[in-house]
Design a protein that fits this description.
single chain, alpha/beta, nine-stranded mixed β-sheet, 39% helix, globular, binds guanosine-5'-triphosphate
Length: 249
Amino acid sequence: MTDAAAALATTPPRRVLLKLSGEALLGDAEYGIDPGVVRKIASEVAEAVAEGIQAAIVVGGGNIFRGLAASAKGMDRATGDYMGMLATVMNGLALQDALEQLGQPTRVMSAIAMNEICEPYIRRRAVRHLEKGRVVVMVAGTGNPYFTTDTAATLRAVEVHAQVILKATRVDGVYDADPEKHPEAQRYSRIGYTELLSNRLQALDATAVSLAMDNDMPIVVFDMTIAGNIARAVRGERIGTLIAAEESR
Ligand code: GTP
């Protein structure tokens, strides 16, 4: 096992980066933010933070706007991506509101300066907020088009020295084929970065995986639709699939 994955297996993480897709905030709706779902996510995060875990959150924006889908319909890709980044800011503010209603101090930090709405992302300041027990919601992706919020999550996790990325999804891990199309698909409990990349498994985009690989950053993919799973993942319980370096034989 690599150092990072081995450390994770023996000691619960102290600092985590939770990646929430925009779709995670949809609930049963087709568009926008379901306040009930946001409250549920916030209460699980607040519960784990109350136990002393430091949590940063990177949130996507696909519930409001998808840059890639717009570019497929003819919009300039960079413009679509910037609109997607703005969508993540709305989601971040909704998360902050829900967390602070529960009494959990939260700071929203944006990769694109919009000082009237939230703080600019400054790495050392983000770390200081985390040390003080504040949840830091990192929005506007990396601030650059052509990157995904999975890549933003990996970049931020590496920057703030999180021990693990927790990718909350609607499936319970990484499968060897799309489980919605292939019912016989098998779930991995652990998979190496290079196997994930070479099999072109769609759990995360390749840029995010290779950045994680270069920095020995473990990623746990888990099902957030099961009540309590976000809190379990944040506490370091083994759920879903662990993506880490290949185990040496
Ligand atoms: P410490 O300095 O570590 O105590 O952090 P702090 O965030 O409590 O203090 P600060 O005085 O920097 O911020 C107070 C409030 O203003 C917090 O809610 C911040 O999120 C917010 N804030 C700080 N900088 C900005 C900014 O550039 N824009 C916006 N909109 N809010 C900001």
